Amino acid sequence: MTDTPKWDIEWIMSVLPHRYPILLVDRVLELEPKKRIVAIKNVTINEPIFAGHFPGRPVFPGVLLIEGMAQAGGLLLLQDIPDRSKKLIYFAGIEEAKFRRPVVPGDQVRYELEVLRLRSTFSKLKGTVTVDGQLCAEAVISSAMVDR
Q1: Is pLDDT above 70 for 56?
Q2: Out of 36, 53, 87, 124, which one is annotated catalytic?
């Protein structure tokens, strides 16, 4: 039996500074350092955003899908940085963002990101958000790593 990596919520919280209600990644399924990541978020009706978006017709906001992609990308970029607790990753750009299908309570969101460009303090990642194999959102996101 081989050891499988434990990329659960405890690990995620040890890498990212985000916390409830803005932590948007529940588990990492695949991670190839400096190349790609696959992560998931389980969307439930208990999300605070659904109180106002939209009453009677809950839809997970597209901007939070982009944020979830960025957080998954942050896990990819920070996971092997030894002093990651002293770093933050900020958005530097969002390009080619498209929203194809609404995400609703009960959906399991799958974030898939691949590195397009990686430098010590700058990265560009291409990402998709799917539910049950259906494309919900996509974007190219750029980020800058800064000291806290």
Answers
A1: yes
A2: 53
Q: State the residue range of the domain holding 117.
A: 9-147
Comparing 2 with 22, the larger pLDDT belongs to: 22
Which residue shows structure tokens 């990212």?
Answer: 16
The CATH number covering residue 65 comes to: 3.10.129.10
Query: For 130-146, b where at least 16 C-beta lie within 10 A, e where not — what string?
Result: bbeeeebbbbbbbbebe
Q: Which helix (H) or strand (E) holds 38?
A: strand 36-42
Are the CB atoms for 59 and 53 separated by under 8 Å?
yes
Decide if 18 is catalytic.
no
Contacts of 133 (CB under 8 A, 6+ apart): none
CA distances from 44 to 50, 59, 84, 106 (A): 9, 11, 30, 5
Rounded CA gap, 51 and 48, in Å?
A: 6
Tokens linked to 49: 């955003």
